[in-house]
Amino acid sequence: MRCPSCAASNPDDARWCGQCFVGLNQPEPEPPPAPVAPASPIVSVPAEAAGNAVQRSPATSIEQLRTPGMRRRGEQVEWECAHCGEYHSIDSLRCDVCGASFADRYRTTEAEAPQANWTLAMALSALAPGAGHVLLGRYGAGLGRLLLFVVWLLGAFALLNATGSGAALVAAPLLFGVAVLWVTGLVDIQRLRQGRPFLLSNRALLWLVVGVVGVSLLGLFTGFIRIAR
Hints:
This protein is an alpha+beta fold. 41% of the residues lie in helices and 7% in strands.
């Protein structure tokens, strides 16, 4: 065995080197442990100082819309269930909680529906065609009939009080139009009560106006010809 220190030859069972007296068959000393670097202290950095390193999720804003029962939650529009009050996406047709339909918000119940006074509507139509329509909420049809009735009736009376044979020819179609408006006004109130369409529809009313005005102009033209002769 050779000494690891001086390379001198020694017996195999020697415990010491005979040359330099270094111990033989001894385990080599373990290397000292590497020094451990001290841990760095943890310093909290504010989010403002870190810039964009920390991303904060913005709070979802809720905005009530002008339409009752509708709101905007972030980018999503939601509707409120008319039965349970839960909000759902505008894409949902039914409530996920109670199963109510989205259309229930705008469906008028029988108790909330205005009760029509059919007797008063008939009485007003008998006095002035179109007044009953206005009472029942048919403003366009009612005001149109009422205006034509007043204009034609006043025009017919004015022509009948005027002198000349041509005045009666002009007043006759006006009186015919007044009679049609009066009769159809009463009939239309009854049909409206039964849920049926008007007898004198808007198109029929337009043709009535064209016919009355056309015949009146024809009578007026005929009267001028007679006067000229």
